Amino acid sequence: MTTVSQMAPEGEATAEAARPDLGAAAWWAPRSGHGPKSGEAAGADHGQAPMGVLELQVAVRQGRSVAAHQFHQGALRVLRPHYLDDSGQVCYVVVNPGGAYLGADLFVLDVEVGDGADLLLTTQSATKVYRTPGSFAEQRMGVRLGEGARLELMPDQLIAYREASYRQRTHVTLRPSSSLVMAEVVTPGWSPDGAAFRYEEVRLRNEIRVETGDGGTSELLALDNLLIRPPSGDVTGMGFMEGFSHLGSLIVVDARVDQALADELHSLTSARDALTGISLTRSIAGTTGLVLRSLSNSTGEVNLLLGACTSLLRERWHGQEPLNLRKH
Question: Quick one: which of 100, 153, 172, 324 could link to 143 by a disulfide (CB 3.0–4.6 Å)?
Answer without folding.
Answer: 172
